[in-house]
C-alpha cells in the first residue's frame, strides 16, 4: 500500500511567515530589447518578448552577446530591498526563455559562458543578502523553456500555441533530467543556503514530476522551501495568481506575486507605476488576509533598478520604519471579513488597525475583549480615548476610539490595541457601524441539490460556479438597526477582464422578503485590489428589514446558464427620498 504523502513544509517556513514582504526581481536578456523589437513595441509583459515577437532561438540568443550589466551592484539592490522592509529576495535564475542568469556548468546558455559580462553575479548577490540579513531565493521556470528541446513552449511548437498540448512526455522528461535537475542542483550548491525555489507555470508537468522536484530540493537543502507553482499543490506554500488579491482571509500559507507597473521584466515605456498609497494599500490588504506580498522590480540591461521603483520602495520603507511591527511577524485579522474603514492584523494580544483614510472617531463591532490601551504608532504619546459598550438586546459589542482630529502618520495610519488576551470576535457577519452589511460568499453556506455540481470557493475567495435554481448560498448575519436597505450583488471575474454574471437573473431572500432582478453590472468596484481582477456591483433594489438580531439571507441564480462569479451581497441603509 502506498504511504500517505507528507506535505508538511519544513520548520524553516517560520521565517517566510514572519517576513510578509519580499522583493521579486525579473532580470534576464529580455531587458536588452526592453519591450521593443525591430522598431515595434511588443504588447504585454516584457519577459515574454521572445514568445510574443515570435523570435527564433538564434535571434533571441544573440541578445546574450550584448548583455553586459556593468552597473550592477549587488549591495545596492539588497540595500534597497532592506530599506523597503523586505525580508527576502527572489531573483529569476532562469525564466521561460531558458537563459540561466547564473553560472551553469551543465548548460552553456548562461550569463558566464554566453555574455560579455562573463561573471556569476548571483555569487555577489548571495554575499550581499548574507551581509544584510535577507533570504536569497531563486525563481526557476521548471516547465516552460522556449530554448531547450523538450521544454514546454520550445519554439518549434510555438506556432501551435502554447495552450495546446505542448509537450511530448518523453522529451519533457529528458529535459527535466538533463537541464532542470542539474541546474536546480547548481542553484542549491553554489550559493550557500537558499530560502526558497520559486517554480512557476507548471504546464504539462505530471504530479509525479512535481513531487520529484520537491523531494530533490528538500534533499539538497532541507530548509529550502518550494513554491506552490511547482505544480499539483505539492509546494510548501500556495501561490495566488499574478497580481491576484483574495477577497478575504485564506487558510494556510499563501503569497501573491505582484508588479509595480504592468510588467515583470523591464520595458522602457511602461510608466504605469502604482502610487505609494496603492502599494501600501495592497501590502496591508494582503497582510490582513495572512498573505505574503512579493513585489517585483525589473532592472535594466545595465543593471539598474528603475528610479521610479526605487523611490517608491524607499517611501514604503519610511512607512515601515514606523509601522513595520503591524506587518512583520503579524497574522491575519481575527475578523473573517474586510472592514469598510481599513484593515486589521494581529500579533499575540495586539491588534493593529490600519487606516488609509483618517477619521477622528473609529467604531468597531464584534470585539469581545477588553481593550487595555490604544496607541497610534506614528504618535505614541497622543492619548486615544477608548470606550466599549455592549447592547444586551442585540448582543452587539461596540468599541469606539477617539483618535483626534489631526491625522497621525502618512499613507496608512496604524492604531495598536492591547487586549486582555488573544482576540475573541463575533464570527457572523455583523452590521458595521457605518450601517452597511457585507455578506462575503466565503462566509456563506453552500448548497447544491438535484445533481447540480457542488459549489466551491476558489483560492481568491470567490464562488465561480453558481448556476441553476437548485443551488443556493445562505448566510446568518446580525443586524442592529431595522430599516430600509439597498441590496447589491458584487460579482467578480474568474479570468482577466469580462463580467461574469452580467445579465443573469437572481433572487435574494431576506427574512420574509424577496428581491428579484437581472444583474446589471455597470458599477465598477474601486480600489487597489480590483485593478487586475475587476469586480462589479449590481443593484437589486430596496428591501425592508423589520427586525434586529440574527437574520437569514439566501441568494439563488434562477437563470444563470454561464454561472455567476459571486463575491458578496451588500446591504446599505437606503437614502431617504
Ligand atoms: O514571471 C512572471 C510571468 O512571466 C509569469 N509569472 C510571473 C511571475 C507568467 N507566465 N505565464 N504567465 C505569467 C501567464 C501569461 C500569460 C500571458 Fe500571454 C503572456 C498573457 C500575455 C502574455 C500567452 C501569450 C498568453 C497570451 C499571450
Account of the protein in words:
- By secondary structure, this protein is of the alpha+beta class.
- The chain has 3 domains: 13-326, TIM Barrel (Alpha-Beta Barrel), CATH 3.20.20.80; 333-419, Immunoglobulin-like, CATH 2.60.40; 437-573, Galactose-binding domain-like (Jelly Rolls, Sandwich).
- The protein is built from 10 helices and 29 strands.
- It has helices at residues 13-19, 49-52, 57-61, 74-83, 111-114, 121-132, 169-189, 207-220, 276-288, 307-323, and strands at 21-25, 36-37, 40-41, 88-94, 135-140, 196-199, 225-226, 238-239, 254-258, 291-297, 331-332, 343-347, 350-355, 361-365, 371-376, 385-391, 396-402, 413-419, 437-440, 445-447, 463-466, 472-479, 483-491, 505-510, 513-518, 523-524, 536-545, 549-559, 564-573.
- The strands form 6 sheets. Strands 7-6-5-4-1-10-9-8 form an 8-stranded parallel beta sheet.
- Strand 2 (36-37) and strand 3 (40-41) form a beta hairpin.
- Helix 4 packs across helix 10 (307-323) and helix 7 (169-189) runs parallel beside helix 8.
- The longest helix has 21 residues, at 169-189.
- It is globular and about 75 Å long.
- It starts with 12 loop residues before the first helix and ends with a strand.
- The relative contact order is 0.10.
- Residues 161-165 have low confidence and may be disordered.
- Bound molecules: ligand H79.
- Ligand H79 binds at residues 44-45, 47-48, 200-201, 242, 257, 264.
Amino acid at each position: 500500500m502506498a504511504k500517505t504523502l507528507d506535505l508538511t513544509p519544513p520548520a524553516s517556513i517560520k521565517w517566510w511567515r514572519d517576513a510578509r514582504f519580499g522583493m521579486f526581481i525579473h532580470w534576464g536578456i529580455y531587458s536588452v530589447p526592453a519591450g521593443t523589437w525591430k522598431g515595434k513595441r511588443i504588447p504585454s509583459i516584457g519577459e515574454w518578448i521572445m514568445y510574443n515577437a515570435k523570435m527564433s532561438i538564434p535571434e533571441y540568443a544573440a541578445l546574450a552577446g550584448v548583455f553586459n550589466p556593468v552597473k550592477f551592484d549587488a549591495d545596492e539592490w539588497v540595500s534597497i530591498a532592506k530599506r523597503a522592509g523586505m525580508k527576502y529576495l527572489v531573483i529569476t535564475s532562469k525564466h521561460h526563455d531558458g537563459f540561466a542568469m547564473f553560472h551553469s556548468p551543465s548548460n552553456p546558455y548562461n550569463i558566464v559562458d554566453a555574455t560579455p559580462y562573463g561573471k556569476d553575479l548571483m555569487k555577489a548577490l548571495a554575499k550581499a543578502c548574507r551581509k544584510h540579513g535577507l533570504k536569497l531565493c531563486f525563481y526557476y521556470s521548471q516547465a516552460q523553456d522556449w530554448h531547450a528541446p523538450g521544454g514546454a513552449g520550445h519554439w518549434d511548437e510555438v506556432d501551435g500555441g502554447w495552450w495546446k498540448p505542448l509537450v511530448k512526455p518523453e522529451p519533457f522528461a529528458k529535459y527535466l533530467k538533463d537541464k532542470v535537475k542539474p541546474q536546480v542542483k547548481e542553484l542549491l550548491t553554489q550559493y550557500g543556503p537558499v530560502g526558497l525555489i520559486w517554480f512557476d507555470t507548471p504546464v504539462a508537468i505530471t504530479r509525479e514530476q512535481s513531487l520529484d522536484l520537491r523531494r530533490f530540493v528538500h534533499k539538497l537543502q532541507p530548509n529550502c522551501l518550494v513554491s506552490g507553482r511547482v505544480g499539483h499543490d505539492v509546494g510548501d506554500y500556495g501561490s495566488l495568481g499574478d497580481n491576484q488579491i483574495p477577497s478575504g482571509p485564506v487558510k494556510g500559507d499563501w503569497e501573491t506575486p505582484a508588479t509595480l507597473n504592468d510588467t515583470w521584466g523591464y520595458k522602457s515605456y511602461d510608466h504605469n507605476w502604482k502610487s505609494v498609497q496603492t502599494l501600501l494599500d495592497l501590502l496591508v490588504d494582503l497582510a490582513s488576509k495572512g498573505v505574503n506580498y512579493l513585489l517585483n522590480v525589473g532592472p535594466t540591461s545595465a543593471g539598474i533598478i528603475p528610479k521610479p521603483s526605487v523611490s517608491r520602495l524607499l517611501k514604503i520603507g519610511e512607512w515601515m520604519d514606523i509601522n513595520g511591527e503591524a506587518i512583520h511577524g503579524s497574522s491575519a485579522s481575527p475578523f473573517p471579513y474586510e472592514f469598510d474603514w481599513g484593515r486589521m492584523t494581529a500579533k499575540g494580544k495586539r491588534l493593529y488597525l490600519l487606516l488609509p483614510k483618517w477619521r477622528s472617531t473609529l467604531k468597531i463591532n464584534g470585539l469581545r475583549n477588553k481593550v487595555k490601551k490604544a496607541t497610534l504608532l506614528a504618535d505614541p504619546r497622543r492619548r486615544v480615548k477608548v470606550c466599549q459598550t455592549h447592547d444586551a438586546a442585540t448582543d452587539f459589542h461596540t468599541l469606539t476610539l477617539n483618535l483626534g482630529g489631526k491625522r497621525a502618520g502618512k499613507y496608512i495610519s496604524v492604531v495598536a490595541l492591547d487586549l486582555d488576551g488573544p482576540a475573541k470576535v463575533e464570527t457572523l457577519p455583523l452590521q458595521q457601524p457605518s450601517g452597511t452589511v457585507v455578506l462575503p460568499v466565503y462566509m456563506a453556506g453552500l448548497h447544491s441539490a438535484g445533481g447540480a455540481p457542488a459549489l466551491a470557493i476558489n483560492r481568491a475567495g470567490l464562488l465561480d460556479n453558481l448556476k441553476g435554481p437548485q443551488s443556493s448560498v445562505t448566510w446568518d448575519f446580525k443586524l442592529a438597526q431595522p430599516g430600509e436597505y439597498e441590496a447589491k450583488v458584487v460579482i467578480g471575474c474568474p479570468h482577466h477582464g469580462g463580467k461574469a454574471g452580467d445579465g443573469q437573473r437572481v433572487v435574494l431572500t431576506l427574512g420574509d422578503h424577496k428581491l428579484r432582478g437581472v444583474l446589471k453590472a455597470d458599477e465598477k468596484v474601486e480600489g487597489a485590489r480590483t485593478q487586475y481582477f475587476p469586480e462589479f456591483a449590481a443593484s437589486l433594489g430596496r428591501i425592508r428589514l423589520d427586525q434586529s438580531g440574527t437574520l437569514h439571507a439566501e441568494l439563488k441564480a434562477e437563470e444563470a446558464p454561464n454561472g455567476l462569479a459571486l463575491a458578496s451581497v451588500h446591504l446599505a441603509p437606503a437614502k431617504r427620498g
